[in-house]
Each structure stands twice: as C-alpha cells, then as structure tokens.
Amino acid sequence: MANANSTSDVRPLLQLPAAERAKKRPATSKTGGKKSSASRRRVAHTVAGILVGLTVGFLSGDSTVRLYTGCGGFGGSGQRLDQAAVAAVQWPAEDYSGTVNGTTSSADGRPATLLFVGVLTANQYLSTRAAAVHRTWARSVPGRVLFYTSETSVRPLDAPDLPLVRLATVDDSYPPQKKSFLMLQHMWDNYGDKYEWFMRADDDVYVRPDKLETLLRSVDSRRPVFMGQAGRGNQEEFGLLSLEYDENFCMGGPGVIMSRETLSRVVPHIKHCLKNLFTTHEDVELGRCVQKFAGVPCTWSYEMQTIFYHNSSGREAFTGNLKQKEVHRAITLHPIKQHSHMYRIHNYMKGLKLQDIQQKKILLHRDIRAMIEQLSRHQPQRQPSNEFMLTNNSKLFNAKPGSPNYLGDPDLLGWPPGLNKFRPRRIVDVIKWDFISKSWFSDTDSNPRRRIESYAKEGLDDVVREVMDIINKFSKQRGRVIEFKEIFYGYHRVNPLYGVDYVLDMLLMYKKYRGKKMTVPVRRHAYLQQQFTNFEIREVMDGVEIKQKLQEESVYEMGNEESAVPVKDILDNGLLGVDGQPVENMKHSLDQVRLKTVNFVLPLFNRNSTFVRFMDNYESVCLANDERVTLTIVPFGQATLNQALAAVDATKAKYPTARVKVLPDLEDSFARALALDLGSSRIGPPEDLLFFVDVDMLWTNAMLNRIRLNTVRNRSVYFPIVYSEFDPVVVYGQSVSPNHFLINQDSGYWRQYGYGIVSVYKSDLVSVGNFDTSIRGWGKEDVDLFEKFVKRNPDIIMRVADPDLVHVFHAVECDSKLSQQQAQMCKNTRFETYGNVDQLANTIYKNKDKFHRFVNEQINKSIKAVPIR
C-alpha cells in the first residue's frame, strides 16, 4: 500500500457493495432475538465438551491436557461427524503459557495482542515449509503463530520448538476444509478474547509483519471485516461455485484475515458450514460461511490484489529477481513452493529494512547538522559536529571514529542533498558525467559507447523505484496514481565522498481516478542523489567470519576533516577470535594461513626463455621467502624434458630442500588438459591445495596468500581474473614491458573470460570429474572445468581480479589443427592482446594509407569472389 498510516487511507478498501449494505444483519448479530439462545447453546456445548474431556482424562489415568475440538462436520476422507469430537492430544506446556510467538510485548511493554496467525500445514511439510515459516517471518508477528496439522502428525526432530496444534479427527487429505474450519474453532475457543485480528495462512506464504501491522492498526477491529484477495473462481469455474452475482470469497493462498467480530459471528455456525459444502474449495466455502453468518464479503478492492499478492508462476514463483515493484509493495507473497526460497526472501526483506534504517539515519544526521548550524549562528567560528558541546561537560558525540558506538560524521552524512556538495578547485578534480540513453556513454572508458551493464541497470532500477514510491506516497488521498514508463535520457556520476548523482528525464503516466477521470502522459526531470554511508568490512578465513577489534582512539586526518578509520588500520588492529578460540593478533593468523602448501602444476612445451623467467620468479617469490610450495612440471617432448631437468637441477643446487619434480615427457602434440590431469594425479592426498598455472605467468607473495584465503575445501574454488599485458611494442615501443605489474587501461586488460588459472582442492576437483582429457591442443579445457563447477554449485565459484597475477605478453600462434571452436577462441585472444581501442585507433591513423589500401584489397577480393550469372 502507498500509505496505511490512518484509518481514512484503508477505509475505501472495506466499503461493501450497496446491495450488501442494504441487507439486514444476520440473526447472529448482537441485536438479534436468536443471539441469546445461540449463546446459551454454545456455552452449554463448551461446558459439556470440557466435562467430557476431563472425564476421559480422569478415567485414562493420564495427566495429559485434553482439548475439545468444538464442532463436527465432514472428515478429510468423507467421514461424517454428527457430534462434537474429543481430542486426546499432548500439548507442550509452552503452548498454553500465554507467551507471544516471537514478540512477547509491544514497544511500550504491553503484551502484543494485535494478531493471531493460524498456519495450515501437513505432516510432510513440518520439517521444511512449516519450519521455514517459523524461523523467518513468524518470529516478527505482533502476536502469536500456531501451526495446525492432522492428529497423527509428529513434530520434526530438527524443529523441536515448532508450536504445533494436532487437530483431532483431522487428516492431511486435500482439500483441507475440515482442517480449516476446526482451526478457526480452536482459535476462537482458546484465543478469541486475547487478539484483535485472526489470520488463516498457508505454509507456502511469506508475510511481512511490519506492513501487515500498519494496515491492521488503521482498521477498526470491532467491525466485521473479512480481508484478503477477492476472487470469484477461474474462467472454467465461473458460475459453478454457487455464488450470487454480488458474492465473492477471499482466496486462501495469499492469506485471509478476519476481525474478532467476524470470527465471533462465524464460529457458532462452523458445524452447519461443514455439513453444507457445495464445492471442494476450502476458501470458497469459508467465504460462503462468512458471507452468510457474518454478513460481509471479502474486501472488493483492486489494491487488495496487489498487497495480498499471488504469483501465477507456480513452483518457479519468487525464485528469480526479487527487485520487482510487486514484491516491494506486497504484504503477503504466495506461493513459496521451494521452502529454501522462504529464507532467501526473508533475507531480502531484512535487507530492505536495513536500507530504511540507513535512510532514517541519514535524515537524523541532516537534522542534527541543521540544528547545530542554528545553534552556532552567533558564534564566530562553527565547531565540528564531533566536538559540539551540549553543555559545558557533555559532548553531543562522545564516541570516537573507529569505536563500535561511533554513529557517523554529521558533517559528512548530514550534508543536505544537492549536486554542488563537492566543489572542485582544480580542473583535474572535476567529476565527469556519463550519459545514459539506450546505451551508456563515457569518455573515461576505452569503449565510449557500450551497453548498460547489469550492475548499473540494477542501480538505475532501484533509483526509479524509490522515486516512484516517493511520488505515490500520498496518491490515495489525492485520488491519482503515477506510473513509470521509460527514461528518455539521463546523466550519472560517482562522487567517492558523498554518493551517486543522477539527472533523469522520465516519461510518466498520470492517472486520476477520483472526480473527473483522466490519463495523461507527463515528462519530468528528476535530480537525485544516493548518499553513501559508513564503510564496513567483514573478514572471512576458511569460510569463518572473523570479528575485528577496532581501536577506539584510531583516527586519521583527511584534509581538514576527521574521517573514518582507514582499511589498513582496521586490518592492523588484529582479530578477536576464530571459531570462538582467541587469536593473539593478525600476524599469528597470517602465519596459520601460510601453513597451507600450494602445489603448483605447470604444463610445459618448448618456450625455453619463458620457462627461465618463470623459474626465476618462482625462486625469488617462493623459495627465497621459504614459502610452503611444491612445483610439478609436466613436459611435452624430449627437448622440453631436458630443459626442465636442467632448470630443476640448478634450482636444487641452490635450494636443496625445494620440492620440485619433473614428470616423464608426454607425446609431442600438446594437450593442456592431459598435462593438468596427470600432474594433479601425482600430487598427494585429497586435502592438497592445487594451483594450475601457465609458464607465461608472474606473481607476488600476495597472490599466494590470496590463493590460500580464497580456496576453501568443499566451499570455494578460486578462478582469479588475470591481468594480461598488451603488446609492449604498441604500448611502449619496445619488445619488453618495463614494469610487468603496472596496472592501467593502457598497459593491459583484465581477462574476464579466462579460466585457465585456478586453485582448487584435489577432493573438489575429483568430485566434478577432473579435466576432460579428450580435449587436445590449446584451450577449451578451462571452460569445460569451469562449467562443471557451475553445474555442481554456482556459489562455490570465487572470481576476483588479482593485480598480483600477471600474464606476460607473447605472440599468440593458433595451430591450424585446432577445432573450429578452439581456433576461434585462440583468434579472439590474439586480437585482444594487441592493445586497447585508443591505441589501435592511433595505429590506424598513423598508417591510414596502408589501411586504406588493405581495405580496398579486401573489397576487391570480395567482389571477385562473387560469381557472375
């Protein structure tokens, strides 16, 4: 809903049709003559049931509490019940302790008695769907949640605290008509005088308790209200459900809500409703019963179709992108057939709450800054907010930057939104704008016109959705709604200190539905700023989060402003513990990381001078620093074998303890997949850490530690994104790069689609089937292995741009014997290594005469190749 903070906002949702308002109140109303006799019968019925239950309990000699179901009806298997049933069901003491599920009291300390939720479930879903509901949204309901199932159900071992109600004489057959009606009976008999609202929910629905609470607190629960998504049946069933022309029902899937008054009118007649079923649909029969005995239909409102949201995608519902307007404005989401997605949706909703809290935090900082400005108006010099004194002995902010209680810098976070927050003093400090249209235009990128990347599109969609929420916040009171259609164009820039700025030219659709109705297209400009908040770091070692100990007094100066703790200071502060065990400091933790042995596997075919450079790097980085590493070389051909043996002998002469071995030479035709498979098979037990590398690579010590940290057995396989050099002749005008670790857009590029360098535990490699040794020659084996891990579990893939791992340029020669796919991959790699777009453009410009001749020659060849008919 756009706004549900006042009764007037929701009242239109609860208006009844004129025909309904003209009907007389049923005989069960408080003013009816039959009411007193019905009440007397109900009281007598209740007393009789309690006496029977106590008698049976006494005769059985069992101290177990016996519960009275309170009505008869038809069982799930069609068995008719002509009298009240007595349920001999065991109840845990906490089920009747009167405590509230999840929330024991409201914000002011009073018991949270707004809502009682009954969740219909079955024995087969107790450990999955029901447990997921209990562990997610049910814990935040401002009231109580119980799960209703058959009398033979057993509480699952992995959910011992699941508040379960086993209804007597009820099984788990479908449709759950008897289960649903007896659940309402149990609600009223045990909790009718304790809660204002009662909700019937399925175990595959997700509820947003905060939004539901806002809605319910704006409606008078003393009135008969029957709330949900109204329906009259699908196209095939229309007219076959025994509904009058002005009757409807609340669809059960998205949830059904009744006020206390509605439930009080319906419950005395549940036995009658069970004996007079016209269809097999539980929600249709419930709606018919409420219509007949409470005198109200389901809320007939278009808005209810969106806030009680049903997704028609079936089992695939809510398994994709959750950043949809339907998800954001809904109070309930149905159906969540895959219970694991219940946790996913819950985490997403918690993320939205965190965003709201962050926004409120920024608004509070702005208020604080504005008040300080007002209080300091007559002072000669304004004090920084962190030094502002409320009294002579009391600071406004006592916590220092870096302290866990530090609330942020109001001078930074509290600055009012605007496009002129940052004022450059030099031309080089000017932040350039990118232009957005159907494509993304930027002069800071090597490709000035490119498609809008997924992350940028996602950020743009978030901004547009938030803007539309702000625009439509009070649309209900104004009788109109404004819908977003498209962005004509826009501008975007990132200010590292303050946030992201947008200027958007949007096409909107103005729809007025109150008074004189109209639909008009509107074009508007929006000036927006997404404010950055505090910088947060979460460190993980071997899949376990490490708590960081921040030094309370650690601050640093950034210009004339006091800012946050730098990353280096945070990392140097040491750790509090790993798995609950104390860790003295960061150095000790890094020592533990270095204990992991990295087993290099290197395929080798010719490349004598390149291999010499590789061994020099291996010696200076690994052996000279006493790193825990091994090297296994897999040579192809006798010449390569002799070269490898000579290099290894020279290395062992200098480092006798170095663990370097050379396998017997393989066939002359190079096959990288075969070499890697053979090399990994000759390395020890399954818990060994393997690193598959090429002879063209250079690395630093930081890369080794990154491999150890990012590769976790059964959890993570590390595919580093390698930095690949351009042709140094194009970049520097010389054959060798003067600095292989110089990272910028002119010296090289990130090989986003290269998967040949990988670190993985041997057990994980074996679990996906190792390398495909049928792949011969250059390429494709790395893509094949990557896809195997993706199919097994995409979350196990770890991809990070590693600036300490560089692929040194060499001319790429593509073998004519390669398959078509491998040849194309090889050619693409060769083209990418020449240089960036600017460098190639300059090369063409300097040799434009040669280029024109080449183009003309190609055109003439194409013309001659066309046959003349």
Verbal overview:
It is a single chain. The chain is α+β, with helices and mostly antiparallel strands. The protein has six domains: about 5-335, Spore Coat Polysaccharide Biosynthesis Protein SpsA, Chain A; about 350-415, no CATH class; about 425-530, no CATH class; about 540-590, no CATH class; about 595-835, Alpha-Beta Complex (Spore Coat Polysaccharide Biosynthesis Protein SpsA, Chain A); about 840-869. The strands form twelve sheets. It has a six-stranded mixed sheet with strand order 7-6-5-8-13-10. Strands 20-19-18-21-22-23 form a six-stranded antiparallel sheet. Strands 32-31-30-33-38 form a five-stranded mixed sheet. Helix 5 crosses helix 9, helix 18 (about 610-625) runs parallel beside helix 19 (about 640-655) and helix 26 (about 835-845) packs across helix 27.
Describe this structure in a few short sentences.
With 869 residues, the chain is an alpha+beta fold. It has 27 helices and 40 strands.
* CATH architecture descriptor name of the largest domain: Alpha-Beta Complex
SSE class: alpha+beta
Proportion of residues in extended strands: 15-25%
Distance between the termini: 70 Å
What's the total count of β strands?
40
**CATH fold category name of the largest domain:** Spore Coat Polysaccharide Biosynthesis Protein SpsA, Chain A
How many structural domains are formed by the residues?
Answer: 6
The description of the largest β-sheet is:
6 strands, mixed
Spatial ordering of strands, largest sheet: 7-6-5-8-13-10
Query: What would the principal axes of the Cα set say about the shape?
Result: globular
**Share in helix:** 25-40%
How many helices does DSSP assign?
A: 27
Radius of gyration: 36 Å
Average pLDDT confidence is 78
CATH class group of the largest domain: Alpha Beta
